[in-house]
Amino acid sequence: MKCKFCDNNAVIELRAYNLKLCDEHFISFIENRVEKTIRKYKLFNREEKILIGISGGKDSLNTAYILNKLQYNVEGIYIDLGIGEYSERSKGKVLNFSEKTGIKIHIYNIKEDFGMGITEIARILHRKPCSVCGVIKRYILNRFAYEHGFSVIATGHNLDDEVATLFSNVLSWQEGYLARQNILLPQRDEKLVKKAKPLALISERESAAYALLRGIDYIKEECPNAHGATSKFYKHILNQIEERAPSTKLRFYLEFIRRGRRFFEQDTKEGETQLKPCEVCGFPTTRKVCQYCTIKKEIQKRRG
Ligand SMILES: [Zn+2]
Ligand SMILES: [Zn+2]
Asked: How many Å lie between the centroid of ligand 2 and the Cα of residue 286?
């Protein structure tokens, strides 16, 4: 099997694009695709300070690596969630990556805010770890970006993540979520930094192959708290469809962005809940006190 663009042997076949590529041409294919996504969806430019939320997994490390390679102005933040050995190992990968690439990565430990890790917080509050974790990560990313002068937060969401979310939102017609799902989430408030997903058109498999060929060492096991997540089941089904009909995932997602999304956006615009400053921390929320401050207060109360 020969590469489509040169005489070298192909190392990967991309059925969605009907392409067989050698390692060099695959690497440039991915990097070009990310650059095109950034331009087409006007995610950010080279003057902006970009903060990347880094977990130690392949997608966030690839995001940092590719944006840095494309000469964007990037720094990362690793949020230590205190999930035992899993957090220790992922932090190790992140520090290693930072040292190898020279990309600056801030370390933020949630124990400084709560005196404990996510698993304990969730147990005390009788909530699912993933929902508490999502709230806390989003809040810290935004506050850190805002306070340190970053104009955009980039996350490592890949095509499979996006398609699984879209699929789930369509199955239950979650109009509000559908209206907000996009490659770029613009700034809605002075203290709410815009968010971008530069890897939104790169599949999970392409991302894994890219990390492998670039020698990026990432944490392969998933978070122990995410075990049995519905999104995994949806990804599995979508891959079966993709197997039968290559490029379905890409088409489903892109046609939603191009044509479907706006209908939900129009419908929800009038009813969109107004953001106001949280009475405790001053960051925008739809409630009186934001979810982060509510969790923090609750934890302090229980600890006495
Ligand atoms: Zn080639
Ligand atoms: Zn607050």
From this structure: 11
